[in-house]
């Protein structure tokens, strides 16, 4: 039986930025205090959306990524605490699943929404 070549001689793994984006968005959506919100197009409900990310890959060992992340948070929410938890979760998930390191992470809080449905108003 012929021995396998050393790991570094077997090739390389590249993960498409779209896959990295999905990892980032999923990790952010799992943090307590972040919310998914309904999406509408021309007044028609087209489902829900959560965190939205743009990922730019860099080089290095481990590979680096720059992330621009947009979130909706629960109101009232300790914004700084939730954003810090999102940063930690995204970094851990990217390192664990893809072996990438976050070089820069810009978070934009696009909205604050109540987690409870609004009470019906009487006119």
From TrEMBL:
Pfam families per record: Asp23 (PF03780)
Name of the protein in its database record: Alkaline shock family protein YloU
UniProt source species: Pseudonocardia adelaidensis
Lineage: Bacteria, Bacillati, Actinomycetota, Actinomycetes, Pseudonocardiales
Similarity-based family: Belongs to the asp23 family.
């Amino acid at each position: 039986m012929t021995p396998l070549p050393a790991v570094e001689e077997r090739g390389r793994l590249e993960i498409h930025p779209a896959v990295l984006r999905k990892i980032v968005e999923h990790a952010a959506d799992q943090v307590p205090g972040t919310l998914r919100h309904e999406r509408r197009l021309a007044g028609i409900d087209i489902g829900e959306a959560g965190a939205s990310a743009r990922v730019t890959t860099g080089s290095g060992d481990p590979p680096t990524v720059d992330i621009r992340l947009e979130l909706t948070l629960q109101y009232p929410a300790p914004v700084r605490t939730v954003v810090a938890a999102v940063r930690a979760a995204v970094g851990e998930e990217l390192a664990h699943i893809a072996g990438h390191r976050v070089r820069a992470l810009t978070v934009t809080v696009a909205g604050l929404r109540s987690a409870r449905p609004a009470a019906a108003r009487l006119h």
